[in-house]
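HUMAN: Now follow token order:
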Amino acid sequence: FFVALALVASLATAMVYGFGGVMAVNGLLTVGTLLALAALLARLYAPLTALSNVRVDVMTALVSFERVFEVLDLKPLVAEQPDAVDIPDQPVRVEVDHVTFGYPSADEISLASLEGAATGDRRGSGDILHDLTFTVPVGSMVALVGPSGAGKTTITSLVARLYDPTEGVIRVNGVDLRDATLSSLHDRVGVVTQEAHLFHDTIRMNLLYAKPSATDAELEAALRAAQVWRLVESLPEGLDTVVGDRGHRLSGGEKQRFAIARLLLKGPGLVVLDEATAHLDSESEAAVQRALDAALANRTSLVIAHRLSTVRG
């Protein structure tokens, strides 16, 4: 089709110059008019080609829309029940009752049409946790220590309800997490991971993300408790300093302390620390440790660490 289109355009141009040239020689047409006709013909070719591409564009758009709607229609694995209840606002107690869990397979969480031919292993992980039972009493600290791949982070993901257990029940203050409202769960549980995420925005907005109604006095108190207020004071724009994408303008220890300040501002009843001091030097770790002392005071906490010294601290 495109070859035919190009051939017609070429023949039409040849005819214009052929017949037009003869007419110009005979004085029936000026050379300027001939050149204008040739130029107009060349301008006509581009829209004709674009029109011929419309069908391809429409078909591409339809396929794209189909895939977008497939993603939008994909049911989330973690959903709030219609009759969900709030977790009581009181000191937090966590019960993990005969929990077995394996990460979902690719077939459960993604669309085959979006993954192409090389889909890899779609079978899932198998069971990571097997019939696990333990209790975190009110106001206590429970430390999970073990080798990589033992399932420590998986437990924290289940307590924060990023996933639901395959078997068994996880309760917070006596409420099965599957029967709890997500908003009340988010209010009760605060998490600090080893890779603290900061948005490409100001320090103020990164803190207000946890508590939009917080005052400047509350922000300052949280930053002081997190051992990072001196840094904020030293910055030319203070709380209105932009931290960069993922906080790239801050060191690892500073990002961790800002994450702890955000946690303190939120004030959850359960604090989950997932290797919060894993990649820090001794000085930064000491500062973060002092910040954690404030974060964990009078709160129930679940702590993951590779080093026993961190847990002892």
The beta strands are 94-102, 127-136, 141-144, 167-172, 175-176, 189-193, 270-274, 300-304. The longest strand covers residues 127-136. The first helix runs from residue 2 to 25. Residues 120 and 287 are 43 Å apart (CA to CA).
